[in-house]
Specification:
Length: about 775
């Protein structure tokens, strides 16, 4: 692909036989006009129609060759030259992209875009809108990145000194003195040090041990031939880069933790997130499979890098540019860092990050992001510090307890890998410490106590497997810290339920009432049971006049006309019964209110003072008394949300559908062959609309891969889709009633299996209310989940 890109850049002008400055091109003019659109306009995305691709290819302009070879997000576009092409610009972004739409056999509308591109700066033109800097494809401009730390301090002051999350400063036992080239015990109370976040990989990494620590403490030790020949390139480069930045101390795990001192090792590993949160800056080595890849592109320090910045001339002497990823090298090398579980909290708790990623260097802090291929942009910087859709990161994190917000962290984190899977609790400990300050009563194995029974109904996003302890594990098998009821016990992308009875913009599920109380236990035979304080149900039932402090009640007035394009009013995203009020909460410094259908407690104190310790890892077992039923799991399945994620149907003896199970991968084959008797326990009352869907299309979707259509087939299918949306707009109340009919009452449940008097979670499920009450065993059973 690099050769193709070279062809574009070398032949772009000769393709038309003219120089860019001679061309008078309508497409180039529209691109230039769009670069001048305001950053903070009313629309989330601006669109400018460019016309048919075939007409744009006929222009006597360099852009024609670009359009011929351009790559789209979803691959080659069928009947490309006959498509309508548009130009897009997202709110608060300078970059643009091209995009177009088409229809496939199973998808009514595919929207495919190009990589974002920016306008190259022209310093000779006053108030020029270009912000892209032309790079050296082999070497980083060290002067640019040396300026970032000082500029951050000068522009942002103490804002970027705040530690991420609820983390107290921590002084490591050892640091690398990069000036004296040795390991030292730092005598300063609050040293300013840099941390390195990287992947060890499958190489032999030099480590500090009891036998070599005295040698490493001698000045010059890390420059000796004996030691430097054993150090991986990433660590050597990080030492030299720290020195080039004018800093003295660097913390690297392999050098600054005595690896055969079990007590010291355990202590510093437990405080890893605090080390990264305390450090002034973290160097992130995101490229490369292992620690020998190095921080490439630092002239005089490391080997050269290889990036491919594409530069395209437009009419009027303007240029656009973007960096083309190399899929054969860059995407593969990024996988190692981005998929390691330990690097997740190293990255997220660092308050300043200098990242080497995809061959390019970038800066991130609490206030902004700078990249080496962009000049400073004060207007964009001002717009970057805003509310986040998450609990940790740059900007203003959310402080309102929310399972859907927690999902933004959980989905990515739990798909990452661990060398020793029993370490998942420790790898999440930094997040837990912070989240304990947000969720009332804290977390239990990554589950907020406040929403505990709802959180037990987590499900697979795209397949799971059960985590198992490594062969190095020497602990008690009954306390392996991998409980089946927690997402921590499983590897893969997981999600807590999106509860439409509580949160706005949630779909398909609602939780209306808690039906049991849960207790945490340290041992299966323990007589001491610690109550888990799940109180969401009490908040939901509280009278409106008992509104919690900080919340504001607003009368909910539904629209008269149903607008399909206004997702905030879609009945599918709302409680089953029409609410009379919506509640909003605004924290100081946050101009984006959080909305819910009922108010819940919010900790208004700062993360540093408002943390409530969660239950420690010894509480691996949970107990309750609840109803249970034995049902038949059918091989029949339906697709969720038109995707390739399927749920298996639960049937009664007459073959009628009465519920569903959301299975991890390892149980799909087991249930897909024949009907299987399963034991389910009730967790909470609620509803779902999943079983009301028309499954005909999803069944055909399951049988084959998506396919391109002929022109005639695509035109007919698109017309059907347009006709279904172009009828007279219905009344909102009518749509509300239709959506309400789809919401079927029932019991959220768990499929369990028993081993030595301990139950283990297999999957989340749902059973229709009438059927559960008819088929459940009388009375309540004691359930101990491990």
């Amino acid at each position: 692909m690099a050769s193709l890109d070279k062809t574009i850049t070398e032949n772009i002008s000769s393709a038309s036989g003219i120089t860019p400055s001679d061309a008078d091109c309508d497409m180039c003019s529209k691109i230039m006009d769009m670069f001048q659109f305001p950053l903070d306009g009313e629309s989330q995305i601006e669109e400018v129609k460019l016309g048919k691709v075939r007409d744009l290819l006929a222009y006597n302009c360099p852009h024609a060759n670009w359009l011929r070879h351009i790559k789209y997000m979803h691959g080659p576009v069928p009947f490309y030259e006959k498509r309508d092409l548009s130009l897009y610009k997202w709110k608060r972004m300078r970059e643009l992209s091209l995009g177009l739409g088409y229809t496939t056999k199973f998808t009514s509308s595919v929207f495919s875009t190009t990589a974002d591109f920016g306008l190259v700066t022209r310093p000779e033109i006053h108030h020029h809108h270009g912000k892209v800097r032309i790079l050296d494809n082999h070497w980083v401009n060290l002067d640019v990145i040396k300026d970032w730390p000082a500029r951050c301090i000068r522009m942002h002051g103490s804002i970027c000194d705040k530690t991420a999350g609820n983390v107290r400063p921590f002084k490591p036992q050892l640091l690398v003195d990069v000036v004296q080239a040795c390991v030292v015990v730092c005598k300063e109370d609050s040293p300013r040090f840099i941390t390195l976040s990287y992947t060890w990989g499958q190489i032999k990494n030099f480590r500090t041990t009891k036998s070599n620590i005295q040698q490493l403490r001698k000045p010059g030790a890390l420059r000796s031939d004996n030691i430097i020949s054993q150090l991986p390139k990433t660590i050597i480069d990080a030492i030299e880069l720290t020195k080039a930045l004018g800093e003295t101390w660097l913390w690297v795990d392999s050098l600054c933790i005595i690896q055969d001192d079990e007590e010291g090792l355990a202590r510093e590993l437990a405080q890893m997130h605090r080390i990264y949160a305390t450090s002034f800056l973290t160097i992130i080595a995101a490229d490369g499979w292992n620690a020998d890849y190095g921080l490439r592109g630092l002239r005089g320090i490391s080997s050269e890098r290889s990036i491919n910045q594409i530069i395209l001339p437009l009419s009027g002497g303007e240029r656009i540019a973007w960096i083309e990823p190399d899929p054969s090298d860059r995407e593969a090398s990024e996988l190692s860092y981005s998929q390691r579980m330990w690097t997740s909290q190293e990255h997220d708790f660092s308050k300043r990050r200098l990242s080497f990623k995809s061959g390019k260097v970038q800066w991130e802090c609490n206030c902004t992001k700078w990249t080496e291929d962009h000049v400073y942009d004060n207007e964009v910087d001002k717009l970057r510090r805003m509310a986040l859709n998450g609990y940790i990161g740059s900007g203003i994190p959310s402080r309102v307890p929310s399972l859907s917000t927690l999902n933004n962290l959980l989905r990515n984190f739990n798909s990452r890998t661990l060398r020793f899977e029993e370490d998942v609790f420790d790898a999440f400990s930094g997040y837990s410490t912070y989240l304990n300050s947000i969720f009332p009563s804290g977390l239990v194995y990554g589950h907020p106590e406040f929403f505990f029974d709802i959180s037990l109904c987590w499900y697979s996003v795209d397949g799971l497997r059960r985590r198992t302890v490594s062969k190095h594990y020497k602990g008690d098998p009954a306390h392996n810290r991998l409980p089946s009821w927690s997402w921590m016990g499983w590897h893969g992308r997981t999600s807590f339920p999106y509860d439409s009875e509580a949160e706005t913009h949630a779909l398909d599920l609602g939780f209306t009432e808690a039906i049991t109380e849960w207790y945490a236990m340290e041992h299966p035979g323990s007589t001491e049971r610690r109550p888990i304080k799940s109180t969401w149900s009490q908040c939901r039932k509280a009278p409106p006049e008992s509104i919690l402090d900080g919340w504001r009640s607003i009368e909910y007035k539904p629209p008269v006309i149903f607008d399909r394009y206004d997702t905030s009013t879609l009945p599918q995203y709302m409680p089953k019964d029409l609410p009379s009020c919506i509640y909003t909460y605004i924290l100081d410094g946050d101009d984006d209110p959080t909305s819910r259908w009922y108010p819940i407690p919010v900790n208004k104190h700062s993360p540093e003072t408002g943390s409530v310790p969660g239950l420690h890892s010894g509480y691996q077992y949970i107990w309750c008394q609840t109803t249970r039923a034995y049902l038949l799991a059918s091989p029949d399945s339906i697709s969720l949300y038109g995707s390739r994620q399927y749920i298996h149907l639960l049937k009664d003896i007459n073959g009628a559908t009465i519920g569903f199970l959301d299975l991890p991968n390892e149980d799909n084959d087991r249930l897909s062959q024949k009907e299987t008797k399963v034991e389910l326990i009730a967790v909470a009352k609620g509803w779902t609309s999943i079983l009301s869907r028309d499954t005909a299309e999803s069944e055909s979707y399951k049988l084959s891969e998506d396919q391109h259509l002929t022109e005639q087939e695509e035109q007919e299918k698109r017309q059907e889709w347009i006709d279904s949306w172009s009828n007279e707009e219905p009344l909102w109340k009518d749509e509300w009633e239709r959506a309400r009919e789809d919401k079927q009452d029932g019991y959220h449940a768990l499929w369990i299996e028993w081993e030595n008097d301990v139950a283990y979670r297999r999957a989340y499920g749902f059973v229709l209310a009438e059927e559960w009450e008819r088929l459940a065993e009388p009375g309540k059973a004691d359930i101990l989940l491990g």
